[in-house]
Design brief:
The complex is a heterodimer of chains A (about 300) and B (about 375). By secondary structure, chain A is an alpha/beta fold. Chain A is about 35% helix and about 30% strand. The longest helix of chain A has 16 residues. The chains are: A alpha/beta (about 300), B mainly alpha (about 375).
Chain lengths: ~300, ~375
Amino acid sequence: MIVKVNNLVKRYKELIALDHFNMEVEEGEIIGLLGPNGCGKTTAINCILSLLSFDKGEIEVFGKKMTPNSYDIKQQIGLVPQEVSVFDNLTVRENIDYFCGLYVDNNNLRKQYVDEAIEFVGLKDFIKFYPKKLSGGLKRRLNIACGIAHKPKLIFLDEPTVAVDAQSRNFILNGIKKLNKEGSTIIYTTHYLEEVEMLCKRIIIMDNGKDLVSGTKEELKAMITTSEKIVVGFSTVQDEVVEKMKNIPHVIDIEKDGEDYIIKFENGFNNLTNLLDFIKKKDLTYTKLHSQLPTLNDVFLELTGKELRD
Amino acid sequence: MTVYKYFIKIALRNKWAILSYTIVFFVLSIINGSSPTRGETSFVEAKLDIGIIDNSNSQLSNSLKDYLRDKNHIVDVGQDEESIKEQIFLEAADAIIVIPKDFDEKVINKEKSVEVYRDDRKVESIQIETQLNKFFVFLNATYKDGKFDLDGISTALNEKIHVELIKDGGKARNYHISEWFRFYFNFTGYVIIATYIAVMGLVMADFTDYNIENRRKISSKKFLKFNSEIYLGQLSLASIITLIFILGSIVLRGKYIGEVNFGIYIVNTMVFSFSILCLTFLINNITRNKFVINALSTVLSLGTAFISGVMVPQQFLGKKVLTIAKFFPTYYFVRVNDMQANSFSDIRYEFFMQLLFAIAFLFTGLYFSKTAQKV
């Protein structure tokens, strides 16, 4: 176990930021901390890293109790903060060199690490640029390079893709996979479902400072017990027919998604058969008909009664 | 030494803040040095425009009026106090003397015999006080058996004094040189405050930025080692800036350094520099807001320079202003430069006070630093 968090409580006066939060991270995995903005993801990370004090609980990193003076543990940790945290007055290369220098004293080794980090984030053509001259995506890459240049075994990535273009986002996500392949354990916080689905082996869903549930994405989706979604597309259909579809047994709701309709049924019944009977009876021609797998958003909805992006 | 290296690098990227002050300072010093030596070669007693209000109209008061009329131009003035003040304000008269009804009695009793309204804006108006003092000293000297020897006084007062300025053996030039050094080092104090707070403040604001500071906190760099490198950087930068100004004085007036107490100027500048470095340390531990730092740099440098006697000599400043100035090290720095002391023992109090400020700033800064480091 690389990280073990047990019953962590963090309060800001009346506000409970972390409410008996638990987390376990195995070596070599990418674990996703998923939850809406303000649910306590960053607070949890800051407590683990001893950037914040906490009211109750235990934190162990690499099998040792984490404190502000645990320099031997910190040597193996890298942080990519949510905000781009670099010096405006230093160039790309100088920034990476400075932050790498906080861990690596040997000049030759540091130079090698800095070169590798620049290569890794694809900023070779921008090494003499000041951050102000970089686009949002390139700044994010620089932010990552500053956090990983010293080759940490455990990397915390706090929403590293916020406000970046699709190209940079893919670049960053592929980079994270590569880091993991090279042996780093990664704790990844985000509120983007697709990123978690794409990257993480295990996911912890958070809300209101609590860890609601954790497991692989398959395990989490299997927890869905209340609904089943069927997507159907018609060549032509009248509104009153759609309205009548609501009378099919066990239908909970019908949503229009472009030209298609997503029909939400109660789980555990012959819903597809019932829908086909209705189509036959109304003499409708369908162009599309398939069952939709539950998403992590559905899991979140079922757990909290609200959408992840509410 | 990565932290030290990048501290200096970022500081040098703010070089325009240092250069702008330095260039303006040296230009002013060169202009000040190129002005001709102000040495007096002749003495002329000036006649003032004075008004006399004689409420006594005695023989004695007429004698005083005759004496003053001989020495000055008499102008017509009003009778009441408000009108007198108005005349002075409008520069219609340099001074107005009011002789009271009981003038003779007051003279005999050696009380304050006349009321003098003087235009303080004119240095020469002090002359009227000298003339009056002279008259009354002579008058009292001739008082015998309840009478004054007014003829004798008149003769004595009409004796002309021949004033001849003898050669000063280069004292005027020495005065000019020491004035130049005084001006130069006093203004160095102003530039030191402005550049230290502005440049080091801005660099430290970068290093103590919340997110960058967090990156440092989670790193394996020990806090003590990080701070040591930062302080070494600050000390190096302060030394470079101080050295520029010390060398500047040598470049501009190097051949005269033997004629002034140059050693005292140097030590005083270094002590003051250390004190301001500690003040900068305190400010950096209180705020990381660049706007506040810039504002403090301007307000503290200009404000303390003005109230401590950099812009206007301390002898022309009011008591209240000087009392406030005593709460800043600049006051003691300027006092040392103004004193032209012969030995270090003459100025040990001023050095002690500057060092005391340094220690106070340092410890208060450390307190805020510790508070900020608490997780």
